[in-house]
Structure to design on (327 residues):
Protein backbone atom coordinates (compact mmCIF):
# COMPACT_ATOMS: atom_id res chain seq x y z
CA UNK A 1 0.00 0.00 0.00
CA UNK A 2 1.32 3.35 -0.92
CA UNK A 3 1.35 6.12 1.72
CA UNK A 4 -0.04 9.38 0.38
CA UNK A 5 1.17 12.68 1.90
CA UNK A 6 -1.39 14.39 4.17
CA UNK A 7 -2.63 17.90 3.56
CA UNK A 8 -1.83 20.45 6.28
CA UNK A 9 -5.49 20.47 7.46
CA UNK A 10 -5.60 16.67 7.60
CA UNK A 11 -2.37 16.55 9.53
CA UNK A 12 -3.70 18.98 12.11
CA UNK A 13 -6.94 17.00 12.40
CA UNK A 14 -5.02 13.77 12.92
CA UNK A 15 -2.85 15.37 15.60
CA UNK A 16 -5.91 16.65 17.45
CA UNK A 17 -7.57 13.25 17.24
CA UNK A 18 -4.49 11.56 18.64
CA UNK A 19 -4.30 14.08 21.46
CA UNK A 20 -7.96 13.55 22.32
CA UNK A 21 -7.43 9.82 22.26
CA UNK A 22 -4.56 10.20 24.69
CA UNK A 23 -6.50 12.25 27.22
CA UNK A 24 -9.82 10.42 26.95
CA UNK A 25 -8.73 7.51 29.16
CA UNK A 26 -7.53 9.99 31.77
CA UNK A 27 -10.89 11.73 31.72
CA UNK A 28 -12.68 8.40 31.95
CA UNK A 29 -10.40 7.43 34.81
CA UNK A 30 -12.06 10.18 36.81
CA UNK A 31 -15.18 8.05 36.50
CA UNK A 32 -17.24 11.08 35.59
CA UNK A 33 -17.29 11.99 39.27
CA UNK A 34 -19.69 14.72 40.28
CA UNK A 35 -19.86 16.63 43.54
CA UNK A 36 -23.18 18.29 44.36
CA UNK A 37 -23.51 21.53 46.30
CA UNK A 38 -27.05 21.47 47.67
CA UNK A 39 -28.73 24.85 48.22
CA UNK A 40 -31.94 25.21 50.22
CA UNK A 41 -33.18 28.15 48.15
CA UNK A 42 -34.36 28.71 44.57
CA UNK A 43 -31.92 29.88 41.89
CA UNK A 44 -31.04 33.55 42.00
CA UNK A 45 -30.83 34.09 45.76
CA UNK A 46 -27.72 35.03 47.77
CA UNK A 47 -26.80 31.47 48.82
CA UNK A 48 -27.33 30.22 45.27
CA UNK A 49 -25.11 33.05 43.98
CA UNK A 50 -22.28 32.06 46.31
CA UNK A 51 -22.59 28.38 45.34
CA UNK A 52 -22.40 29.21 41.63
CA UNK A 53 -19.53 31.64 42.17
CA UNK A 54 -17.54 28.77 43.71
CA UNK A 55 -18.58 25.78 41.63
CA UNK A 56 -16.38 26.04 38.55
CA UNK A 57 -13.15 26.86 40.36
CA UNK A 58 -13.87 24.35 43.14
CA UNK A 59 -14.40 21.71 40.47
CA UNK A 60 -11.02 22.59 39.01
CA UNK A 61 -9.37 22.27 42.43
CA UNK A 62 -11.08 18.93 43.12
CA UNK A 63 -10.39 17.60 39.64
CA UNK A 64 -14.04 16.79 38.99
CA UNK A 65 -17.33 18.43 38.07
CA UNK A 66 -19.16 20.42 40.74
CA UNK A 67 -22.83 21.19 40.17
CA UNK A 68 -25.34 23.25 42.16
CA UNK A 69 -28.59 21.53 43.08
CA UNK A 70 -31.47 23.64 44.42
CA UNK A 71 -33.74 21.92 46.94
CA UNK A 72 -35.88 24.72 48.33
CA UNK A 73 -38.60 24.35 50.93
CA UNK A 74 -39.46 23.65 54.56
CA UNK A 75 -37.06 26.33 55.86
CA UNK A 76 -34.03 24.36 54.75
CA UNK A 77 -35.24 20.97 55.96
CA UNK A 78 -35.54 19.48 52.46
CA UNK A 79 -31.93 20.29 51.65
CA UNK A 80 -30.79 19.14 55.08
CA UNK A 81 -32.66 15.83 54.85
CA UNK A 82 -31.26 15.17 51.37
CA UNK A 83 -27.74 15.84 52.61
CA UNK A 84 -27.84 13.76 55.78
CA UNK A 85 -29.30 10.78 53.85
CA UNK A 86 -26.73 10.98 51.06
CA UNK A 87 -23.78 8.56 50.92
CA UNK A 88 -20.98 9.82 53.15
CA UNK A 89 -18.44 9.87 50.34
CA UNK A 90 -17.71 13.57 49.99
CA UNK A 91 -19.88 13.89 46.87
CA UNK A 92 -22.82 15.69 48.52
CA UNK A 93 -22.24 19.01 50.25
CA UNK A 94 -24.74 21.45 51.74
CA UNK A 95 -24.05 25.17 51.48
CA UNK A 96 -26.23 26.76 54.12
CA UNK A 97 -26.62 30.01 55.98
CA UNK A 98 -26.29 30.15 59.76
CA UNK A 99 -30.04 29.99 60.38
CA UNK A 100 -30.64 26.41 59.30
CA UNK A 101 -27.80 25.02 61.41
CA UNK A 102 -27.44 27.35 64.42
CA UNK A 103 -30.90 28.92 64.89
CA UNK A 104 -33.43 26.31 63.77
CA UNK A 105 -32.55 23.81 66.55
CA UNK A 106 -33.84 26.24 69.18
CA UNK A 107 -36.57 27.79 67.02
CA UNK A 108 -38.43 24.57 66.20
CA UNK A 109 -39.76 22.09 68.73
CA UNK A 110 -39.20 19.28 66.24
CA UNK A 111 -36.52 19.29 63.58
CA UNK A 112 -35.96 16.43 61.16
CA UNK A 113 -32.18 16.78 61.43
CA UNK A 114 -29.70 17.50 64.20
CA UNK A 115 -26.87 19.71 62.87
CA UNK A 116 -24.52 18.65 65.65
CA UNK A 117 -25.02 14.91 65.03
CA UNK A 118 -26.08 14.55 61.40
CA UNK A 119 -23.67 16.94 59.68
CA UNK A 120 -19.91 17.17 59.37
CA UNK A 121 -18.58 20.75 59.08
CA UNK A 122 -16.23 21.23 56.13
CA UNK A 123 -15.44 24.94 55.99
CA UNK A 124 -16.78 28.40 56.45
CA UNK A 125 -17.30 30.01 53.03
CA UNK A 126 -18.33 33.64 53.44
CA UNK A 127 -19.16 36.12 56.16
CA UNK A 128 -22.30 38.24 55.67
CA UNK A 129 -22.37 41.13 58.11
CA UNK A 130 -25.73 42.70 58.91
CA UNK A 131 -26.35 46.40 58.37
CA UNK A 132 -29.26 48.51 59.62
CA UNK A 133 -30.83 50.36 56.70
CA UNK A 134 -33.56 52.97 56.52
CA UNK A 135 -35.48 54.57 53.68
CA UNK A 136 -34.42 57.89 52.22
CA UNK A 137 -37.34 59.64 53.94
CA UNK A 138 -35.70 58.93 57.30
CA UNK A 139 -33.16 61.68 57.98
CA UNK A 140 -31.27 60.09 60.91
CA UNK A 141 -27.60 60.16 59.83
CA UNK A 142 -26.60 57.29 62.12
CA UNK A 143 -28.21 54.68 64.33
CA UNK A 144 -27.43 56.87 67.35
CA UNK A 145 -29.76 59.64 66.10
CA UNK A 146 -32.25 56.98 64.98
CA UNK A 147 -32.44 55.71 68.57
CA UNK A 148 -32.49 59.17 70.17
CA UNK A 149 -35.41 60.26 67.99
CA UNK A 150 -37.34 57.12 68.91
CA UNK A 151 -36.80 57.69 72.63
CA UNK A 152 -38.18 61.21 72.31
CA UNK A 153 -41.14 60.19 70.18
CA UNK A 154 -44.48 58.70 71.07
CA UNK A 155 -44.30 55.64 68.79
CA UNK A 156 -41.83 52.73 68.76
CA UNK A 157 -39.43 52.11 65.92
CA UNK A 158 -40.79 49.57 63.47
CA UNK A 159 -38.16 47.12 62.28
CA UNK A 160 -38.99 44.70 59.51
CA UNK A 161 -37.57 41.20 59.27
CA UNK A 162 -37.70 38.32 56.82
CA UNK A 163 -39.62 36.25 59.38
CA UNK A 164 -39.78 35.41 63.08
CA UNK A 165 -36.51 33.83 64.17
CA UNK A 166 -34.64 34.99 61.08
CA UNK A 167 -31.21 36.60 61.39
CA UNK A 168 -32.67 40.09 60.73
CA UNK A 169 -35.18 39.51 63.55
CA UNK A 170 -32.53 38.35 66.01
CA UNK A 171 -30.26 41.25 65.05
CA UNK A 172 -33.16 43.60 65.80
CA UNK A 173 -33.52 41.99 69.23
CA UNK A 174 -29.82 42.56 69.95
CA UNK A 175 -30.31 46.18 68.85
CA UNK A 176 -33.36 46.58 71.10
CA UNK A 177 -31.41 45.36 74.15
CA UNK A 178 -28.23 47.34 73.40
CA UNK A 179 -29.94 50.64 72.56
CA UNK A 180 -32.88 50.64 74.94
CA UNK A 181 -34.99 51.94 72.07
CA UNK A 182 -38.69 51.10 71.85
CA UNK A 183 -38.87 48.62 68.99
CA UNK A 184 -41.80 46.90 67.32
CA UNK A 185 -40.89 43.86 65.23
CA UNK A 186 -42.75 43.51 61.92
CA UNK A 187 -42.19 40.05 60.35
CA UNK A 188 -42.53 39.52 56.60
CA UNK A 189 -42.43 36.40 54.46
CA UNK A 190 -38.95 36.95 53.10
CA UNK A 191 -36.50 39.82 52.75
CA UNK A 192 -37.85 41.25 49.48
CA UNK A 193 -41.23 42.49 50.79
CA UNK A 194 -39.56 43.76 53.96
CA UNK A 195 -37.06 45.81 51.94
CA UNK A 196 -39.81 47.13 49.68
CA UNK A 197 -41.75 48.44 52.66
CA UNK A 198 -38.67 50.13 54.11
CA UNK A 199 -38.07 51.84 50.77
CA UNK A 200 -41.73 52.91 50.65
CA UNK A 201 -41.55 54.26 54.20
CA UNK A 202 -44.13 51.88 55.66
CA UNK A 203 -41.62 50.60 58.24
CA UNK A 204 -38.65 52.42 59.75
CA UNK A 205 -35.77 50.03 59.19
CA UNK A 206 -34.41 46.59 58.42
CA UNK A 207 -31.34 44.58 59.40
CA UNK A 208 -30.10 42.87 56.26
CA UNK A 209 -26.99 41.16 54.95
CA UNK A 210 -24.83 43.72 53.16
CA UNK A 211 -24.89 41.36 50.18
CA UNK A 212 -28.68 41.54 50.08
CA UNK A 213 -29.04 45.33 50.36
CA UNK A 214 -25.88 46.78 48.82
CA UNK A 215 -27.47 47.30 45.39
CA UNK A 216 -30.35 49.25 46.98
CA UNK A 217 -27.79 51.34 48.86
CA UNK A 218 -25.84 52.01 45.66
CA UNK A 219 -29.08 53.00 43.93
CA UNK A 220 -29.90 55.48 46.71
CA UNK A 221 -33.08 53.65 47.75
CA UNK A 222 -31.77 52.61 51.17
CA UNK A 223 -29.35 54.33 53.53
CA UNK A 224 -27.06 52.38 55.90
CA UNK A 225 -26.83 53.76 59.44
CA UNK A 226 -25.12 51.04 61.49
CA UNK A 227 -22.90 47.96 61.03
CA UNK A 228 -23.62 44.94 63.26
CA UNK A 229 -20.02 43.74 63.45
CA UNK A 230 -16.82 44.41 65.42
CA UNK A 231 -15.31 46.34 62.48
CA UNK A 232 -16.57 48.51 59.64
CA UNK A 233 -17.28 47.02 56.24
CA UNK A 234 -14.86 47.69 53.36
CA UNK A 235 -17.91 48.23 51.15
CA UNK A 236 -19.37 50.82 53.55
CA UNK A 237 -16.29 52.34 55.20
CA UNK A 238 -18.08 55.50 56.37
CA UNK A 239 -20.79 53.63 58.28
CA UNK A 240 -20.01 53.25 61.98
CA UNK A 241 -20.40 50.04 63.92
CA UNK A 242 -22.90 49.90 66.78
CA UNK A 243 -19.96 49.43 69.13
CA UNK A 244 -18.55 52.78 67.97
CA UNK A 245 -21.91 54.41 68.72
CA UNK A 246 -22.04 53.08 72.27
CA UNK A 247 -24.31 50.08 71.62
CA UNK A 248 -22.28 47.02 72.50
CA UNK A 249 -23.32 43.50 71.56
CA UNK A 250 -25.05 44.21 68.23
CA UNK A 251 -22.99 41.65 66.33
CA UNK A 252 -24.75 39.57 63.69
CA UNK A 253 -23.06 37.54 60.96
CA UNK A 254 -25.25 35.50 58.62
CA UNK A 255 -22.32 33.33 57.55
CA UNK A 256 -22.54 30.54 54.99
CA UNK A 257 -20.82 27.23 55.63
CA UNK A 258 -20.23 23.98 53.78
CA UNK A 259 -21.37 20.73 55.43
CA UNK A 260 -21.26 17.04 54.52
CA UNK A 261 -23.08 13.97 55.91
CA UNK A 262 -21.85 13.12 59.40
CA UNK A 263 -20.02 9.91 58.55
CA UNK A 264 -17.90 11.42 55.79
CA UNK A 265 -14.26 10.32 56.29
CA UNK A 266 -11.95 12.95 57.73
CA UNK A 267 -9.64 12.62 54.73
CA UNK A 268 -12.48 13.67 52.41
CA UNK A 269 -13.44 16.60 54.65
CA UNK A 270 -9.86 17.83 54.67
CA UNK A 271 -9.50 17.33 50.90
CA UNK A 272 -12.61 19.40 50.17
CA UNK A 273 -11.73 22.02 52.76
CA UNK A 274 -8.28 22.55 51.26
CA UNK A 275 -9.74 22.72 47.74
CA UNK A 276 -12.17 25.37 48.97
CA UNK A 277 -9.30 27.29 50.56
CA UNK A 278 -7.55 27.46 47.19
CA UNK A 279 -10.84 28.40 45.51
CA UNK A 280 -11.50 31.32 47.85
CA UNK A 281 -7.89 32.48 47.38
CA UNK A 282 -8.46 32.73 43.62
CA UNK A 283 -8.65 36.45 42.81
CA UNK A 284 -11.53 36.15 40.34
CA UNK A 285 -13.66 34.23 42.85
CA UNK A 286 -12.72 36.46 45.80
CA UNK A 287 -13.40 39.64 43.83
CA UNK A 288 -16.78 38.36 42.63
CA UNK A 289 -17.86 37.50 46.18
CA UNK A 290 -16.52 40.73 47.67
CA UNK A 291 -18.25 42.86 45.04
CA UNK A 292 -21.56 41.25 46.03
CA UNK A 293 -21.05 42.19 49.68
CA UNK A 294 -19.90 38.80 50.97
CA UNK A 295 -16.47 38.41 52.56
CA UNK A 296 -14.63 35.20 51.58
CA UNK A 297 -13.72 33.42 54.81
CA UNK A 298 -12.21 29.95 54.84
CA UNK A 299 -11.92 27.80 57.96
CA UNK A 300 -10.81 24.33 58.88
CA UNK A 301 -13.49 21.74 59.75
CA UNK A 302 -12.56 22.11 63.42
CA UNK A 303 -12.90 25.90 63.30
CA UNK A 304 -16.34 25.67 61.70
CA UNK A 305 -17.37 23.15 64.35
CA UNK A 306 -16.36 25.62 67.07
CA UNK A 307 -18.19 28.49 65.35
CA UNK A 308 -21.33 26.37 64.98
CA UNK A 309 -21.28 25.53 68.69
CA UNK A 310 -20.71 29.18 69.63
CA UNK A 311 -23.51 30.56 67.45
CA UNK A 312 -25.93 27.79 68.39
CA UNK A 313 -25.51 28.82 72.03
CA UNK A 314 -25.64 32.55 71.22
CA UNK A 315 -28.78 32.51 69.09
CA UNK A 316 -30.42 29.84 71.21
CA UNK A 317 -30.16 32.14 74.22
CA UNK A 318 -31.80 34.99 72.28
CA UNK A 319 -34.63 32.77 71.05
CA UNK A 320 -35.29 31.50 74.56
CA UNK A 321 -35.03 34.89 76.29
CA UNK A 322 -37.43 36.50 73.82
CA UNK A 323 -39.72 33.46 73.60
CA UNK A 324 -39.48 33.54 69.79
CA UNK A 325 -41.51 31.02 67.82
CA UNK A 326 -41.24 30.15 64.15
CA UNK A 327 -43.91 31.54 61.81
Amino acid sequence: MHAFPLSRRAAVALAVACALGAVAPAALAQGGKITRIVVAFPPGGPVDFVARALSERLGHELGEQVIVENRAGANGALAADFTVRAPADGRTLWLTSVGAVAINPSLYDKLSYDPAKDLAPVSLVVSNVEVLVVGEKNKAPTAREFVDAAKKGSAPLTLASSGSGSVPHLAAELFRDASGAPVSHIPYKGAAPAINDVIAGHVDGFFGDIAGVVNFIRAGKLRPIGIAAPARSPLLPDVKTFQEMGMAGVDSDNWYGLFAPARTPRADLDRISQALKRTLADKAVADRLAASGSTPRWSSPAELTALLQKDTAKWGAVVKAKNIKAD
